[in-house]
């Protein structure tokens, strides 16, 4: 629909595309390579593979848009938890699990560094705990694959939704994640190669936080000790999202502990 916003975006996009072609004296065969890249991305995309998003991400576009959308009012004294990109592997309807449950299948749990993650979800202005906050979490298996990329994992493995009670706390068992490459067997991989860039992301865990009356938070946390923390292929790392996994004694179910608190902003 030709809303004013659509007109504005289209006019600006066309102007920048034309400027790009003029400034670089873009030749027909170069333009056609771009067309073929887009076509290839479209052809390989399905509900398990989002190549268009991957292409945007390696160009830093999703991270930029995340920053623009969720930038903070400059007068904020304290701040809600920083956001980070959603990435292409989120799935709706992750299993709702009881507090304290393990999101890892038995088989995969034997292969990784078992971790007890816990914390509290609070209102960043009042510091009060938030009841009914849903912590939706997802991360990769030790082989670097999300469940939908990997036929050897059970459906919805390494995913879960946890709902806080009155005290705002949450806790669950997961794994300490590993660095891994974004899928690079398609157009995004071609672009990375052409730019002499690696496809690796630092070890991270994804979250979507929602709570009644609060702005949703899409974010990721990153293992300080992980390789690639300084050069994430998709530019998502922020200082406040870097966390420490610490050795955990006395729990037969976990080798590491990961405390992390989330702060949300009301509408
Ligand atoms: C991207 C993000 C991820 O979290 C991931 O695991 C793989 C790829 C991305 O932004 O393209
Ligand atoms: Fe990821």
Key words describing this protein structure:
single chain, 267 residues, alpha/beta, 6 helices, binds 3,4-dihydroxybenzoic acid, binds fe (iii) ion
Task: Write up this protein.
The chain is globular, with a radius of gyration of 20 Å. Strands 1, 4, 10, 11 and 12 form a five-stranded mixed beta sheet that branches. Strands 3-2-7-8-9 form a five-stranded mixed beta sheet, with no helix packed on it. The protein has a two-stranded antiparallel sheet with strand order 5-6. Helices cover 25% and strands 22% of the residues. Strand 7 (204-210) and strand 8 form a beta hairpin. It is of the alpha/beta class and 267 residues long. The longest helix has 20 residues, at 4-23. The model has no long low-confidence stretch (mean pLDDT 95). Helix 3 runs parallel beside helix 6 (187-194). The protein starts with a helix and ends with a strand.
